Amino acid sequence: MTWGDALFADIEYCVIVALIWRYHRGAVPESTANLRKLSLAAFLTLLILTLTRKCPSWLLTLFGVAPMPMVVMGRVPQILCNFRNKSAGQLSLPSLVMQCGGNFARIISTLCLVPDALVLASHSIAFLFNLAPLLQLVYYDVYKAPKKVE
């Protein structure tokens, strides 16, 4: 029931990666360029298989789980950087609140509509890894921020 949500999340992450690849400054090694072409071909093939309903069920399960490691790999460096700098830098409070709110809504809807442990674990892990930078921002940049004297 939620495979469509996971598919669109996967598409979103792939677009973000493609934009990073496109706007990356500096020379791109030939091996990386080939990896990019292979990744694009694999993505398009899987997308066509999914949309034509010729995709095996194990692959749909993989689509459902794929966003989880992407969120972890995307957030861990940010969390560690915030910890080292004792600041959340340029992170946006409204954006982090909306990400956590969206993850929380997915957790609630999964519990109500699709009691699937794998989907629930995926949304719960995404919530925790989006909550960490939010808590860092509140702690480092709001609570610990030096008070301005007027």
Automatic annotation (TrEMBL):
It holds the Pfam family PQ-loop. It is found in: Membrane. Its main location: membrane. Keywords: Membrane, Repeat, Transmembrane, Transmembrane helix, Transport. It comes from the Eukaryota. GO terms for cellular component: membrane. It is a multi-pass membrane protein. Belongs to the MPDU1 (TC 2.A.43.3) family. This is Mannose-P-dolichol utilization defect protein 1. The lineage of its organism: Eukaryota, Sar, Alveolata, Apicomplexa, Conoidasida.
